[in-house]
Amino acid sequence: MNLRGKQKRFLRAQANHLQPLFAVGKNGLTPAWVDQLTGALDKRELMKVNILQNSDATAQEVKDYIEQNSEIQVVQVIGRVLVLFKVAENPRFQDLSVRVAKI
After folding, report:
1. pLDDT of residue 2
2. Which residues contact 89 (CB under 8 A, 6 or more apart)?
3. Can you give the pLDDT at residue 63?
4. Residue 15: which of 91, 73, 67 has the closest Cα?
5. Is the model's pTM score more than 0.70?
6. Among candidates 18, 6, 35, which has minimal Cα distance to 83?
7. What is the pLDDT of residues 37-47, one digit of tens each?
8. Is residue 102 part of a domain?
9. Are 81 and 46 within 8 A, CB to CB?
10. How do 46-51 and 20-24 pair as beta strands?
11. Which residue intervals define the domain CRM in the entry (predicted)?
12. Nearest CA to 25 among 59, 55, 67?
């Protein structure tokens, strides 16, 4: 699903109350880290990722890496926090993506 402006605004509003669940640290970006993100997003569809102070990666580098190596879409980048969205494969967890599709 390619997100439009209204859909991104809706997702940003939904993510406002969320706390970051994953972090990018000194180990940097790895395929295993992206696999963990994908697994978590299959159950949640929307989450925040924090880039720690000791990380060598910038927010733009993390955004590019995630989008190039997975189906995850970066909805928003604010400072060192990214909001990520991915449609869940299991229909049981597709509550948010169904609402996004109607917008």
Report:
1. 86
2. 42
3. 95
4. 73
5. yes
6. 18
7. 999 999 999 99
8. no
9. no
10. parallel
11. 1-97
12. 55
User: What's the average model confidence in pLDDT over 91-98?
Assistant: 91
Q: Does residue 13 lie in a domain region? A: yes
Reduced to 3 states (helix: H, G, I; strand: E, B; else coil), residue 81 is strand
Q: What is the pLDDT of residues 7-34, one digit of tens each?
A: 999 999 999 999 999 999 888 789 999 9
Structure tokens at 80: 């060192």
C-beta of residue 72 within 8 angstroms of C-beta of residue 85: yes
Q: How many domains does the chain have?
A: 1
Structural domain harbouring 11: 5-97
Is residue 103 assigned to a domain? no
Judge residue 60's burial from the number of C-beta atoms within 10 Å of its C-beta, 0-12 exposed, 13-18 middle, 19 or more buried: exposed
Distances (CA, A) of 101 to 26, 79, 91: 37, 28, 14
Domain membership of residue 44 (yes or no) is yes
